């Protein structure tokens, strides 16, 4: 499985971006998809996840601003990011987790920079 993240860029405070993640194959109805981010000098952190049934979870700092979604038919996962803040600046990574195999797959990352 290969994951290709895109949609990052430079945006001003309060702006919006939509990240996309394309999977090379079926993302499977049993896969948990997620977005992580890593800021310079910091550890990678979980931003949002979406389970196969559609339930979602978010880190507290993005609740109410970010929304994760998936399209199993198109093998795509999205992260809509609104009201962006400088603290959101990071490289964002798409992740697929297959619980049955305890296997993780990662995309290459896309840079998001929020300028003040």
Account of the protein in words:
With 116 residues, this protein is mostly beta strands. Helices cover 0% and strands 53% of the residues. The protein has no helices and 11 strands. The protein has strands at residues 3-6, 9-12, 17-23, 32-38, 45-50, 56-58, 66-71, 76-81, 90-98, 103-106, 110-115. Strands 2, 4, 5, 6, 9, 10 and 11 form a 7-stranded mixed beta sheet that branches. Strands 1-3-8-7 form a 4-stranded antiparallel beta sheet, with no helix packed on it. A hairpin with a 6-residue loop joins strand 4 (32-38) and strand 5.
Per DSSP E runs of 2 or more residues, the count of β-strands stands at 11
Structural class: mainly beta
Global shape: globular
Q: What low-confidence regions span 5 or more consecutive residues with pLDDT below 50?
A: none
Radius of gyration from the alpha-carbon trace, in angstroms = 13 Å
Mean pLDDT: 94
Termini distance? 37 Å
Beta-strand percent range: over 45%
Helix content: under 10%
Order of helices and strands: EEEEEEEEEEE
Secondary structure tally, helices: 0
Lay out the secondary structure.
Elements: E1 3-6, E2 9-12, E3 17-23, E4 32-38, E5 45-50, E6 56-58, E7 66-71, E8 76-81, E9 90-98, E10 103-106, E11 110-115
Parallel strand pairs: 2-11
Antiparallel strand pairs: 1-3, 3-8, 4-5, 4-9, 5-6, 7-8, 9-10, 9-11
Structure keywords:
116 residues, mainly beta, seven-stranded mixed β-sheet, four-stranded antiparallel β-sheet, 0% helix, 53% strand, globular
């Amino acid at each position: 499985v290969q994951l290709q993240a895109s949609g990052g860029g430079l945006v001003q405070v309060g702006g919006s971006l939509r990240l996309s993640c394309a999977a090379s194959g079926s993302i499977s109805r049993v896969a948990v998809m997620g977005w992580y981010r890593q800021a310079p000098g910091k550890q990678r952190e979980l931003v949002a996840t979406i389970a196969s049934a559609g339930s979602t979870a978010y880190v507290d700092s993005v609740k109410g601003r970010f929304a994760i979604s998936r399209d199993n038919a198109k093998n795509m996962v999205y992260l809509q990011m609104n009201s962006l803040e400088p603290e959101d600046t990071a490289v964002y990574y798409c992740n697929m987790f297959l619980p049955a195999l305890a296997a993780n797959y990662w995309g290459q990352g896309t840079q998001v920079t929020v300028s003040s």
